Amino acid sequence: MEGIHHKTINVNGLNIHIAEKGEGPLVLFIHGFPGLWYSWRHQIVYLADNGYRTVAPDLRGYGQTTGAPINDHTKFSIPHVVGDLIGLLDAITNEGEKVFVVGHDWGAFIAWNLCMFRPDRVKALVNLSVAFIPWNPKGDLVELLRLEYGEDHYMTRFQKPGEIEAEFAKMGYQTFMKKIMTLRDPGPLILPKGKGFPHSPPDVPVILPPWLSEQDIEYFATQHEKAGITGGLNYYRALRLSWELTSAWRSAKVTVPTKFVVGDTDLAYYMPGVQDYIHNGGFKKDVPLLEEIVVMKGVAHFINQEKPDEINKHIVEFIQKF
């Protein structure tokens, strides 16, 4: 982590914490749940050493970024978060400067929308784990998954303020981070009330894989203990509102050069209809400048941390063309 600089940028009434390293064309990294800027630690260093300026913020409600109204999930919609990132870019780049964007999980979802709303600010996109989700007239994602999997699906469980926070707090944030980051079951994540993660019994210690250290877990857990996890859960709670606010982008396309990478044991790859959409034409239709789809074998959801060397190369090989 040597040479990574930390600063706070005032944007949209927030104090956005960013980690920054390197000089050259700017690469903006957007983390997911329950990530932080730290999720990109490997990419920040590698890309900075290879001629890029890397910037990774803590999104609103996360980590050291402060000022978001945590108790109001309506302030965590996609337009809010994309607005934060555009404001951040305005503050740290020259006027009209285009940047590279790399997203994972929720960060990928946000990145798709950033590119759809403001393609004038993006040179190229590398997205991990979560494919583009076109606006669906049948309803928002939470409602569709509730109909498919019932009330115990994790996105449904995340909707009621306070309930899931209490379960995670009782578990302890170190244990929570260990359990969620070692999840490798590609099936739907079902969280029955009070029973925890099905892949990890409460009385069995979690053994960390080689790519994840106790120090990594401690950093994530400490930050979530300080800031709370409600901010991250609010993104799920605002999905209905985001769906309503983005209806004007029905049938809109993402028109920036794009590369997509996913692991073949990633639960996001097994959401209903996703593989058919990715591989049978729908994805390419909605993202016409999609140049490459990579499915990495034996890799789960936290792909940029599990396989940092491969992901670093995928990113650089793609963005160096622009």
UniProtKB/TrEMBL annotation:
<feature type="domain" description="AB hydrolase-1">
    <location>
        <begin position="25"/>
        <end position="138"/>
    </location>
</feature>
<dbReference type="Pfam" id="PF00561">
    <property type="entry name" value="Abhydrolase_1"/>
</dbReference>
<dbReference type="InterPro" id="IPR000639">
    <property type="entry name" value="Epox_hydrolase-like"/>
</dbReference>
<dbReference type="InterPro" id="IPR029058">
    <property type="entry name" value="AB_hydrolase_fold"/>
</dbReference>
<dbReference type="GO" id="GO:0004301">
    <property type="term" value="F:epoxide hydrolase activity"/>
</dbReference>
<dbReference type="InterPro" id="IPR000073">
    <property type="entry name" value="AB_hydrolase_1"/>
</dbReference>
<keyword id="KW-0378">Hydrolase</keyword>
<comment type="similarity">
    <text>Belongs to the AB hydrolase superfamily. Epoxide hydrolase family.</text>
</comment>
<comment type="pathway">
    <text>Secondary metabolite biosynthesis; terpenoid biosynthesis.</text>
</comment>
<comment type="function">
    <text>Epoxide hydrolase involved in the biosynthesis of cucurbitacin and mogroside tetracyclic triterpene natural products (e.g. siamenoside I and mogrosides IV, V and VI). Cucurbitacins have cytotoxic properties and exhibit deterrent taste as a defense barrier against herbivores. Mogrosides are nonsugar highly oxygenated compounds used as high-intensity zero-calorie sweeteners; they also possess pharmacological properties such as regulating immunity, lowering blood sugar and lipid levels, protecting the liver, and acting as antioxidants and antitumor agents.</text>
</comment>
<protein>
    <recommendedName>
        <fullName>soluble epoxide hydrolase</fullName>
        <ecNumber>3.3.2.10</ecNumber>
    </recommendedName>
</protein>
